[in-house]
Design brief:
Strand order of the largest sheet: 5-4-6-7-8
Radius of gyration: 21 Å
Mean pLDDT: 85
Distance between the termini: 66 Å
Low-confidence stretches: 1-8
Order of helices and strands: EEEHEHEHEHEHEH
Length: 209
């Protein structure tokens, strides 16, 4: 008998998957049953974060959330730009510096949110919801600098992906470095390889007019 009580399980166990389990074993001699109370489960040979990422990517792609046909164009005159990020983030300073030098006529609204840790995905979702309800920006940028897979895990959250897909306002994902990919990148209307690149992309949209 296998009964999982795993905490913070980051992936969906599937039949035939080899896993490493840490926990407590209890034997019921009268019934000849073995029970494992699992406190930790990790896919053997692959990290739980990567497995969870691939499972969610396949699921959302199958639902059409990554289709180019559903992506909204970035406005050519983004006079009001909403940025969701940590006020202390270097990513924010980079974006503001570029906008100040080259797109100083834009109005910038910042929604403060944690971009790492347990509350990060919820706070970023709240920012997307706020800007959509207020209708006070032309484009939304979700930004944070690079980091490990664990650091960027908040941007592989299913509820965050669906909030981004439901956004009526065009949304740019500017998370991590050029080689980092998150679920938010795939579902957003535009992926910027870095936060600085997001500012440059907005500027180019402005300058094409």
């Amino acid at each position: 008998m296998f009964r999982s009580q795993a905490r913070l399980l980051r992936f969906r166990p599937e039949n035939g998957m080899q896993v490493v389990v840490r926990g407590r074993i209890t034997i019921y001699e009268d019934r000849g049953q073995l029970q494992i109370s699992a406190e930790y489960i990790e896919p053997k040979g692959a990290g739980a974060l990567q497995v969870a990422f691939e499972q969610l990517r396949v699921k959302l792609e199958g639902e059409g959330l990554f289709d180019s046909a559903r992506k909204k164009p970035i406005p050519s005159l983004p006079g009001r730009i909403g940025i969701i990020t940590s006020p202390q983030a270097a990513a924010l300073r980079d974006i503001l510096n570029i906008l100040q030098r080259r797109h100083h006529s834009a109005s910038v609204l910042i929604f403060p949110a944690q971009v790492q840790g347990e509350s990060a995905s919820q706070e970023v979702r709240a920012g997307i919801r706020y800007f959509n309800q207020a209708g006070n920006v032309d484009v939304i940028i979700v930004a944070r600098g690079g980091g490990s897979a664990e650091d960027l895990a908040a941007f592989n959250d299913e509820e965050l992906a669906r909030a981004a897909a439901d956004s009526r306002i065009p949304l740019i994902s500017a998370v991590g470095h050029e080689t980092d990919f998150t679920i938010l990148d795939f579902v957003s209307d535009l992926r910027a390889p870095t936060p600085s690149a997001a500012a440059e992309l907005v500027i180019r949209s402005r300058q094409r007019d």
